[in-house]
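Incident log entry.

Two folding requests arrived from the same account within the same minute. Monitoring flagged them as a possible duplicate submission, but the sequences differ. Recording both here for audit purposes.

Request one:
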Amino acid sequence: MIALIQRVARAEVQVAGASIGAIGAGLLVLVCAEPQDTEALADKLVAKLLKLRIFSDAAGKMNLSVADVNGGLLIVSQFTLAADVSAGNRPSFTGAAGPELGRRLCERVVATARALHPQVACGEFGADMQVSLVNDGPVTIPITLRG
């Protein structure tokens, strides 16, 4: 699985002009499933997200997790994270999971996160979404997990 994590002061996702998910301070998580990914890997991603120490402690050191600061998670599917631009200027997305597997694994990430964390919002799989955010730091971290 591929994820791009952004520490945010706030973030929101809209579909057709309507807000479908929003958080205050926390993590915006863009998620892409790959063909070889499994539910176990989706669960591993959520565990990593909840324990990732990228929020500042009292001394200003990145030492706290989203759970420690009672932050939100906004999880948005984004197959374009699997883009391959090595041959030419038009990206290839063949590295992304197909729609059925992609949907199942993204829904697993959201469901697992909701079971373990009190503040979870999400986008809509396959929709044309508009995501707005205020990156805090800025802090942006790519994560790639392989089975």
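Request two (distinct sequence, not a duplicate):
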Amino acid sequence: MKISATAIPDVLLIEPTVFGDERGFFFESYNERVWQEVTGLATRFVQDNHSRSLAGVLRGIHYQIKQPQGKMVRVVSGEVFDVAVDLRRSSPTCGQWVGERLSAQNKKCLWVPEGFGHGFLVLSEVAEFLYRTTDFWAPEHERCIIWNDPDIGIQWPLVGQPILSEKDSRGVLLCEAELYE
């Protein structure tokens, strides 16, 4: 397993070692011992989530202002453009974003730590997305920054307008959002 920092060093890209032959493939999507040895993080995951979305669906930018969730994310069917936005007011990269293409084909995972907003755009006909989180979902603490905030400037690989939930279409601007310290 190869773990490397992205343009925002706290967001990590995980590329598993894949063993494959004519029968199929096998890989470890997570190994606590390797994770702790390489990152120095004693991460505890408490909840796994699985979503399915159609082409053009954009989810995010979501975060929980209390009970923040670190997320290990990956795609098991299809392809997405996955984004992490630093929402830590004290961070030198506050308001900056990183994006990665995650797919069933490339088998990459992304670590989005606590203090970040998260979102993704479905690039394939359908995508199934897995989230492993470090804290439980707390809808009363959930917040959403609008996907096209001009101050963040995410370069989504869009073809036309994205398909948004009502919640995502009502996201606030970064300058109006509650941020982490």
